[in-house]
């Protein structure tokens, strides 16, 4: 007999109050280790749209709420985690999409702040690096910025074009690389060192 609580109402009911207020503040999911609750019919498309039971979640506040309890575990799977439940969901690529870029300063003093479609923001730097993965079959680049913990945001194509306009050439390990500066760190965006 299956005694697990039904999703998703149970999932919402078990959220602590601290994670139901400001959706932009993630819950301390790294501290929670509930048993596996099962598979939830929910997935995040590559464009950042959240789907539940085949239909898009139209309320941004609800997607923000779920994003605050999202965790990527060592098994490579994404989970929605509360103190009492851990539901696996499907993510097509990564769970977030950076849709806007703000640039302060220039050259090595430049600071790049990314904003996601769910309202998160992050300053690219040592703790939030920019990486580019190049598809081995299509040679198509996929740029990312680390949002929190091990959760990344795909940098939208239009934002990547903005990065390309800011790009300069620097020597990295004795090799010329094309990239951008942010918060005192240089991030290659030519993708020549990373393939998938």
Automatic annotation (TrEMBL):
<protein>
    <recommendedName>
        <fullName>DUF1285 domain-containing protein</fullName>
    </recommendedName>
</protein>
<dbReference type="InterPro" id="IPR023361">
    <property type="entry name" value="DUF1285_beta_roll_sf"/>
</dbReference>
<dbReference type="InterPro" id="IPR048342">
    <property type="entry name" value="DUF1285_C"/>
</dbReference>
<feature type="compositionally biased region" description="Low complexity">
    <location>
        <begin position="10"/>
        <end position="19"/>
    </location>
</feature>
<dbReference type="InterPro" id="IPR048341">
    <property type="entry name" value="DUF1285_N"/>
</dbReference>
<dbReference type="Pfam" id="PF21028">
    <property type="entry name" value="DUF1285_C"/>
</dbReference>
<dbReference type="Pfam" id="PF06938">
    <property type="entry name" value="DUF1285_N"/>
</dbReference>
<feature type="region of interest" description="Disordered">
    <location>
        <begin position="1"/>
        <end position="28"/>
    </location>
</feature>
<dbReference type="InterPro" id="IPR010707">
    <property type="entry name" value="DUF1285"/>
</dbReference>
<feature type="domain" description="DUF1285">
    <location>
        <begin position="95"/>
        <end position="189"/>
    </location>
</feature>
<feature type="domain" description="DUF1285">
    <location>
        <begin position="27"/>
        <end position="94"/>
    </location>
</feature>
